[in-house]
Write a structure and sequence with these properties.
Blueprint: H1 10-19, H2 23-34, H3 38-48, H4 52-64, H5 69-89, H6 95-117, E1 125-131, H7 139-150, E2 153-157, H8 164-174, E3 178-182, H9 190-201, E4 209-213, H10 219-224, E5 229-230, H11 234-255
Parallel strand pairs: 1-2, 1-3, 3-4, 4-5
Helix pairs in contact: 1-2, 3-4, 3-5, 4-6, 5-6, 6-7, 7-11, 8-9
Bound molecules: cobalamin.
Cobalamin binds near residues 187 and 240.
Length: about 260
């Protein structure tokens, strides 16, 4: 286990000692930040403070120093958001502060997006992505979209608060074989199942592979609602998309 003094950034150390109350979470956060470079800790600290100009500058500088976009994303931006999530859950900060952090995250992602989305690979397949009805969280879905584009997928991003009908229209209009749904609220997770039912009712289930994700979603939940796959992060999302697409193509070939 790492020690608090292994973390160079003072803001991060203070955030952990003052606001992360659960012992297991404190250990997890110390391990997480001790393992990342001081430069990434600075990005995370600026994000936690909702300083979008600073996140913008630091992200640009880190990429300029030749640091991998995925490292900046995982060890800087997403790591910072982990502390924000804990503080939000424990009522230490509220929606306006979280919105400021989300804005800071977007400021950083603006620099990361072109790098992750630039694949140069011929399109491997089409994916329709969206956050389900009633849910406005889009940071994770946007990261998945960027990573998919970077891996050569053409992504049709339907945005947030997407109804089952909108998902179906998106799939039909684009003749897409893959659907990715994101949900961050336990109250909106069932809308993934409702969308799958609507796809069945529309007679499209055999032609579409469905993957789901989002912080509260589990493999078990994905299985229960009849999804074809669950991914815990954006890297998983890409692997899953490749696997589901090849399964679908294999089945098509076998059926032909
Ligand atoms: C940022 C945030 C907000 C921002 C959202 C800004 C935005 N543009 O997205 C704002 C302030 C708007 C917000 C609002 C609310 N929020 Co909020 N929010 C968060 C917070 C802090 C971080 C979410 C996030 O961006 N994480 C970072 C990203 C990178 O992670 P991720 O989304 O999980 O995505 C990764 C994986 O899950 C996966 N993934 C995601 N999607 C997909 C899809 C596929 C197909 C695959 C394979 C993988 C995959 O890959 C991603 C990248 O690695 C979470 C806390 C948390 N721990 O999650 C609360 C949280 C989700 N919010 C919560 C709540 C309660 C709300 C509100 C109801 C608050 C209120 N009282 O108004 C509203 C709801 C608004 C609505 N209708 O949606 C609760 C949900 C509790 C619950 N059990 O349902 C949480 C958990 C906070 C808490 N209390 O602990 N929120």
């Amino acid at each position: 286990m790492a020690d608090l003094k292994d973390i160079a950034n003072e803001t991060i150390r203070d955030e952990i000692t003052e606001f992360v109350e659960r012992e297991d979470e404190q250990e997890k956060m110390i391990d997480l930040f001790a393992a990342v470079t001081p430069q990434m800790q600075n990005i995370a600290a600026a994000l936690i403070e909702g300083e979008n100009d600073e996140v913008d500058e630091l992200t640009k500088a880190a990429l300029g120093d030749g640091i991998e976009a995925t490292e900046v994303m995982d060890d800087g931006l997403i790591a910072g958001m982990a502390i924000v999530g804990i503080k939000f859950r424990d009522n230490i900060i509220f929606v306006p502060e979280v919105l400021a952090c989300a804005r800071a995250m977007k400021a950083g992602m603006t620099h990361i997006e072109p790098i992750l989305s630039e694949s140069g690979i011929e399109a491997v397949g089409k994916v329709v992505m969206g956050t389900v009805k009633g849910d406005l969280h889009d940071i994770g879905k946007n990261l998945c979209t960027m990573m998919l584009r970077g891996a050569g997928f053409e992504v049709i991003d339907l945005g947030v608060d997407t109804s089952p009908d909108d998902f179906i229209d998106g799939l039909e209009e684009n003749d897409a074989p893959l659907l990715g749904m994101s949900a961050l609220l336990t109250t909106t997770m069932p809308n993934m199942g409702r969308t799958i039912e609507a796809i069945i009712d529309a007679g499209m289930r055999d032609d579409v592979q469905v993957m789901v994700g989002g912080a509260p979603v589990t493999q078990e939940f994905a299985d229960d609602m009849g999804a074809d796959g669950y991914g815990k992060d954006a890297i998983d999302c890409v692997e899953l998309a490749k696997q589901l697409l090849s399964e679908l193509r294999g089945e098509e070939a076998a059926g032909a």
